[in-house]
Amino acid sequence: MLGHTLRRVCSYAPRVGLSPKRNLLGRKPGISALVRVRNEPWIVPSLLSLKNLADEIIVIDASTDETTEDIRSLMRNGELEIRYQYFKSDLMQMSQRALELSSCEWILEWDGDFVGYTSGTRDVRGLRKLVLSLACSRYFFTIFKVINLDYDLFHIRRDVSYYVEKPYLFTYHPSLIYRLHSKLFWETLNFPLFFKGIDTNSTFAMHLRSVKPPRKYLERRYETAWTFMHAQGKYTGTLDDYVRERISADLGTLDIEEASKNFRAGLFQLVIPYNKERLGDYPDLLKEYAERKMAIKL
Q1: Which phi and psi (to 5°) does residue 247 adopt?
Q2: Rounded CA gap, 38 and 63, in Å?
Q3: Which of 37, 95, 171, 209 gives a 20 to 30 Å CA spacing to 178?
Q4: Percent of the chain with pLDDT over 70
């Protein structure tokens, strides 16, 4: 509570000259969506979710599979205008590159396995309307919810919250730099005290967290930990070395395919069926894509 009060008071710093007013930084009104991508099977509905939400879509791609062609197909077909750059690096550097390329006052972090709602009470355009109505001189970060799907499109984890809250949307300030979180093994931003937090208490997207080929998901999990340890000098070997060591210790094999199957079997023990009556329907874009590409009716 004290932290919220302090942020609320400090958020008026631009008005009294203690920080530059946001509208004087030379940025365009609107939202820049930052999407860093590495081998994401859901990239098409994910990017299409941004069509009526973002004024600018920046994709930093490090994929080695068909994901790159999926993105370029959206661009060629004129379905989306995307500022695209292939940049093979770790997720922290990819995030920083995307931030540096952005030009709007508001920044949206959007993962390539998010699919937004585009109709009803969860429509992502509601989020846009909210943030663009806030004072143009002050700084904010906005927290909203996503629903995590795990194992496949019909399950959620029983042992952890199926909702995740994170400040995915925030106003730009030149002091913002991505760093690796010391405990969580992912990239993060530290917002200055003059940033005021806005909690929407609303859900605007689904996160298809582990709804992907098991080998891809397993490698991604280990890559996140390896990136942190490598950056801190705690592990000097390659990512492949780290994956081999971890699957041997965690899953009892050196064979990545066998390890992926074992991991997926273990994940199934942790999930329960998704309940549409309690949690709501799927996003329209996800339903359309699943039926068209996979013959799956949600």
Answers
A1: -70, -30
A2: 4
A3: 209
A4: 93
Distance from C-alpha of 91 to C-alpha of 186, rounded to nearest angstrom: 8
Euclidean distance between the first and the last CA atom of the chain, given in angstroms as a whole number: 41
Residue pLDDT, tens place only, 51-67: 999 999 999 999 989 99
Q: Enumerate the β-bridge partners of residue 170.
A: 107, 141
Position 273: which residue type?
P
Tokens in use for 55? 């004024």
CA distance linking residue 296 with residue 226, whole number of Å: 35
Residue at which a domain ends, from 175, 190, 207: 207
pLDDT attached to residue 217: 84
> Per residue in 227-254, is it b (16+ CB within 10 Å) or e — as a string?
bbbbeeeebeeeeeebbbebbeeebeee
What's the rounded Cα separation, in Å, for the pair 289 and 108?
A: 23
Q: Which two tokens stand for residue 38?
A: 């590495």
| Residue 184 token pair | 């969580």
Contact assessment for residue 279 and residue 162, using Cβ atoms and an 8 Å cutoff: yes
- Say if CB 109 and CB 102 are below 8 A apart: no
Distance CA 298, CA 296 (A): 6
- Based on the fold, state whether residues 170 and 287 are members of the same structural domain: no
| Encoded tokens for 293 | 């590409």
From 178, 207, 236, the end of a domain falls on 207
Specify the pTM. Answer: 0.91
Q: What is the pLDDT of residue 110?
A: 95
What pLDDT score was predicted for residue 116? 96
Alpha helices (H) along 59-90: 67-76
Average pLDDT value for residue range 156-176: 82
**Contact in structure between 53 and 31 (CB atoms under 8 Å):** yes
Q: What is the mean pLDDT of the chain?
A: 88
Identify the domain containing residue 84 by its residue range.
Answer: 2-207
